[in-house]
């Protein structure tokens, strides 16, 4: 017996085994009997042709081998939402294994009849459905909402729904489900290739309480996002990865409550596209992983100034992109609220042979950064990075017109463009002195040795000792040396140092695993030993 084809089969999503596709044709095929479905498969390797057969084009595919014909009985058109929920949570009649047929209960081989047992079982299922708050029906072949108001009568406490990777063909189906969930807060409809409204339509109140929405891999465009966003009045997190979004538009009067936006794996290419979403007032986290951008620029702010763009942005992810110039890192210092940055896997990361040096340069260039590539930046690490930066580029500063005398200090525009934070570092730590301007020297052993004075402030009778130590020596090994010197166990020692350049400032050497160079200790500095 031939399977019945739904009257709205054209354009519907179907599955066939583990493969998903969209019905592009329903009808007969030359020199064959019966009805066929022409399907464009999500995975082109599942297909055989481009929708043509024996010279006749029945439907079109984006991929030349992305289509094939299947019989209707091979296609799964899906189930309604509530059926999927009952199946997933074992609340369907067929899961009541302890019940027999016709209102009977089975005890071993004996069957006892109970009047009204069916209604009791249904009531128990109803109670259990009412308790569900967080529902996941991922990969449960959900294709439609079901009978009107049935969901609202059955699942009154639902707050969070995962509808990812189902057979939803249209945004209207999502609205039909969500409109029956009074307090819906989280919704994931990723991996459903569906149709979205192309013109402004009646705004549904289905998403009036929605705070988190995931639309990854749904083929939505940014224009469609803005149209649908009219119905998301309190949305805080929006996930849009892998949607082929290439062009952005300014979101006027929508998405104004948004705190997180994920645009990863969309080929935006042009960093200037970001200017169009730069006025979202509450946006705190922006994920731009693998978007193809090669530069970032905030033209409204000059050297050392803050931009008015992205006023609330605290966390930015730009990893896996094509950023190759330090000018883009300089630009990030213009963001007034930036605290965390992810920037791994950019060509820029290959410009320095030493990864530690690269990290120090980024820290020194972005003043308010607290977390870099998921690692917290400790105060001592920032201080060391900024002092090193000030020394490394000191000669360039002098050659570009920099001077210790403030009245003569006029570094060139080119220098300020390359090092916009340098004047601030000079104000913070003082202009670099002649002895500090050693530039980037080759790493010979002589260059790596530090001449340090070691004192015991609490033991004035102990004479200061001068030692030459490699700058790569860890604090733990320094403690081992001092144990042999003072016969005090390393675990009891507390070390700090005073810089010869910054009198009165004492810095704790509080991480045993870090080398001396991490703390920017220089020859002539004094290590203080306490226990």
Automatic annotation (TrEMBL):
It is found in: Cytoplasm, Cytoskeleton. One of its GO terms (biological process) is cytoskeleton organization. Residues 450-529 form the Ubiquitin-like domain. One of its GO terms (cellular component) is cytoskeleton. Keywords: Acetylation, Chaperone, Cytoplasm, Cytoskeleton, Leucine-rich repeat, Phosphoprotein, Repeat. Residues 27-71 form the CAP-Gly domain. CDD domains: Ubl_TBCE. InterPro entries: CAP-Gly_dom_sf, CAP-Gly_domain, Leu-rich_rpt, LRR_dom_sf, Ubiquitin-like_dom, Ubiquitin-like_domsf, Ubl_TBCE. PROSITE patterns: CAP_GLY_1 (PS00845), CAP_GLY_2 (PS50245), LRR (PS51450), UBIQUITIN_2 (PS50053). The keyword Thylakoid does not apply. Its main location: cytoplasm. Supercomplex made of cofactors A to E. Cofactors A and D function by capturing and stabilizing tubulin in a quasi-native conformation. Cofactor E binds to the cofactor D-tubulin complex; interaction with cofactor C then causes the release of tubulin polypeptides that are committed to the native state. Cofactors B and E can form a heterodimer which binds to alpha-tubulin and enhances their ability to dissociate tubulin heterodimers. Interacts with TBCD. Tubulin-folding protein; involved in the second step of the tubulin folding pathway and in the regulation of tubulin heterodimer dissociation. Required for correct organization of microtubule cytoskeleton and mitotic splindle, and maintenance of the neuronal microtubule network. Belongs to the TBCE family. This is Tubulin-specific chaperone E. The lineage of its organism: Eukaryota, Metazoa, Chordata, Craniata, Vertebrata.
